[in-house]
Design brief:
12 helices, elongated
Length: about 260
């Protein structure tokens, strides 16, 4: 994937406003940054397509930065203060990340984002929403399923899952890129608000033991200390009030760091 770079000329090194502002004590500068940045949303084009407010900031991940530090990542709701000077950008960007809610479609987009925002972004991001699904696995077909599941079952053919229970989580939970996703999530030490979306049928039909022992779910549930967790369907319906695997996963993620 080719990634565009932000030209350093877009962040001027000398600016009269910056010269004045930089003379203020760091404590006052931090207060200004906190005042400037209010909670806003960063959406991929896929997520914008479902939102009824077309004026919300958006950015296609394919046009993002490949910068290990994350200093030059173009936040969608780019504030003018980030473009005043290099120093002001470096000081203000952590606050900008902390006040941005990142909304993504699935694991693939999340990985692209967490790589693009670099160490600076991963260490400061506080709010994430994404689906526990991978577009890379959309081509998986029932014809490739193990013999136990690959039976001539009209219920499966007709997408009627009522009364069925899958013992093999590989058929219903993502596998591709999950390890990379979890490694990056573990670097998001300030994450306090997490909204996870699952296919509703997966939650309804999967064997609870198969769900809990799935490698990806085990890694996901090992995250701790997230203050607010909301588990939703892909249609954005909250499932957090439900019992079973939803309640278990929510409790694991919200439990204190050991």
């Amino acid at each position: 994937m080719s990634v565009a770079r932000l030209r350093r000329s877009t962040v001027p090194s000398i600016n009269p406003v910056a010269l004045f502002f930089n003379k203020l004590p760091r404590e006052l500068r931090d207060r200004v940054y906190e005042f400037v940045f209010k909670r806003h949303y960063w959406l991929t084009d896929e997520e914008v397509s479902r939102v009824t407010q077309p004026d919300l900031p958006k950015l296609d991940l394919l046009g993002c930065i490949g910068d290990p530090s994350g200093i030059y990542f173009p936040l969608a709701a780019e504030s003018g203060i980030l473009a005043v000077s290099q120093q002001m950008r470096e000081e203000a960007l952590p606050v900008a990340y902390r006040t941005t809610s990142f909304e993504l479609e699935g694991i693939d987009e999340l990985i692209q984002l967490l790589l693009a925002i670099g160490q600076n972004g991963r260490e400061n991001i506080e709010s994430l929403a994404f689906g526990w699904q991978s577009n890379c696995e959309n081509d998986f077909t029932w014809d490739e399923a193990p013999g136990k599941i690959r039976q001539k079952d009209t219920n499966i053919t007709n997408n009627n899952f009522e009364g069925m229970e899958f013992d093999d989580p590989l058929l219903t939970l993502p596998v591709v890129h999950v390890e990379t996703c979890l490694q990056l999530l573990n670097q998001c030490g300030r994450l306090t608000d997490l909204r996870l979306r699952f296919e509703r049928e997966v939650i309804d039909i999967i064997n609870p033991d198969a769900f809990k022992t799935n490698v990806g779910i085990q890694g996901l549930s090992s995250l701790r200390g997230i203050r607010r967790v909301d588990i939703q369907s892909l249609e954005y319906e909250s499932l957090s009030h439900e019992e079973g695997v939803v309640r278990w996963l929510k409790e694991q993620l919200e439990s204190p760091v050991q």
